[in-house]
Amino acid sequence: MKKKLLALLLVLGLTVTLSTAAYAGSDDIIMIKLDGTSANAQAPETTQLAQTESSQPSQVTERMNTVLESATQAADQALSEKAAADQKAAEEAVAKEAEQGEIAPPYYIEVDCTNCITRVWCNQDPDTKEWKTLVRKMVCSTGRSGHATPKGTYSIYEHTDGGGPHPMVDGTYARWCMRWKSGGYMFHSVCYSSKKASEPIAQEVADLGTNVSRGCVRLSVTDAAWLYRTMPNGTTVHIY
Length: 240
Hints:
Elements: H1 2-11, E1 30-32, E2 47-49, H2 57-99, E3 107-112, E4 117-124, E5 131-143, E6 152-155, E7 158-159, E8 166-167, E9 173-174, E10 178-181, E11 185-189, H3 202-206, E12 211-213, E13 217-219, H4 221-230, E14 236-239
Parallel strand pairs: 3-14, 5-12, 11-13
Antiparallel strand pairs: 1-2, 3-4, 4-5, 5-13, 6-14, 7-10, 8-9, 10-11
Helix pairs in contact: 2-4
């Protein structure tokens, strides 16, 4: 029973400290300290499970379940608050730039697949046709070997699901999706493990800047939200 409980704690990402008392008899003392949770949630207070008769394992299990439930609720709340803060920051950035007149359509998006960089330009010179103002430069992930991001010039033609979770072919969910080529090619955020997940998959965040996607252009959640809210349908996309 004790080994199963400790394994469950380790899966949840909690630090477990055992007392020096050896588990050799019915009079053992188990000391469990929860030292932290993910997403900067407040760590639960140290919980001590006093000397317990081996004939009463159900009491230990009940108290452990209570501790785990409390820690999980605290972590979930912190993750939800962070996701809301990220979305608010993206919205405020768009509003500020528009208010200051720093950006205005038409825009031009270029994706450098070699260096995994996406750039957004505006203010095209009417004579030279060159884009003069770099609005935003973003690290991205483009297609891996066998799933290369198609090169060429396209245009955005659909903003999907109001920016909400959109199912991907591998069972994950992306947000802030914009289609620029038929066949499922999109700009979108790094993916989430489920529709209700509050945080994106850590490995996809770490992989930004490398060629690991199935052909789409992945961006950080903040950059994908900004792009989704700023770029209208019809915006030119050049991929090279």
